[in-house]
Amino acid sequence: MTVPRAERPIDRHVAALLTSYESAGGLNNSDAHNLPSKRAVGQICEDLLQLLFPGFHDDDAVQQASLLELTHLRMDRVVARLTEQVRRGVRVGNPKKPTGRTPPIMEKFCESIPGVRNLLRTDVEAAFDGDPAAIFRDEIILSYPFIEAIAIQRLAHQLHRLGAPIIPRMMTEWAHGRTGIDIHPGATIGSHFFIDHGTGVVIGETCRIGNHVKLYHGVTLGARSFAKDGGGRITKGGKRHPEVEDHVTIYPNSTILGGETKIGAYSTIGANVFLMQSIPPHSLVIYEEKQLNILDKNARKSPDAPEWSI
Asked: How many CA atoms lie within 13 A of 157 on its CB side?
């Protein structure tokens, strides 16, 4: 015989929460398949960084003699964990229907990893050549947040390109949380890419960025506006974000918006520029200084000095 449990003060809070589960639909996933795991995706990102940069994300030195076996072990672990998360992602919306999409996605993703490493080598070179504070290339891999952000984005971009849903965005948001750099996995980014400092950079889904592009902190490459359907809802898809051609530099806190906006090659965008139009190659875009006053603070202490407001 089951003995009734004595009612506790917390019981009414549990009952209210259960009621909210029923009334606030869209926030629950009970009686359904497992969703992708944020914790698992974060661990996969850590494992992928070890594959990309052996010895840089390890407590102990990686010896050449053990590299073959170690790489086999790491690849096996990444493939097993990532396959499970991709499978969960492709089944969102119809959990009982096998799709057959996961194995070819994973096969092509694994093929892409050496190419991603080659691109990352150019990114490290761009940082070393573009930052006078960089003394060693190892320093860049160990301490520059943009390397972690672009490494994960380049891998996530491969998954995104291959049609894996959800997981690529989870990967780049993991990197965003660690670095303050928000790059959508859909963005296409060429070689020799460098983000100096990095904090607050936002690069939208449909951005196309060429080779040898340098950004500073606070740069936004965003959407100008969103098309809406007859019901007033935002229409998904479409080119919404700018194109940045080769050898462009964009200085801190500049905002460039619009899917039709193109920044011509070899251009420089100065700090704090707000731009919603295309510019031709070899342009310099700046705001001229206006009403900038430099005052002598010592003169303000004189009893005969005029009243100044700041």
From this structure: 24
Residue 43 to residue 37: CA distance in whole angstroms = 10
Domain 34-181 carries which CATH code?
A: 1.10.3130.10
Determine phi and psi for 220, rounding to 5 degrees.
-120, 125
Which range is least confidently modeled, 21-25, 107-111, 138-142, 180-184?
Answer: 21-25
The tokens 């004595």 sit on which residue?
6
- For CATH 2.160.10.10, list the domain ranges present in the chain: 200-288
Chain region(s) in the chain for CATH 1.10.3130.10? 34-181
The CA distances from residue 298 to 182, 203, 295, 303, in Å, are 44, 45, 9, 11
Cα dihedral 43, 48, 50, 51 sign: positive
Q: Looking at the domain covering 200-288, what would its CATH class be? A: mainly beta
Condensed to tens digits (0 to 9), the pLDDT of residues 176-191 reads 999 999 999 999 999 9
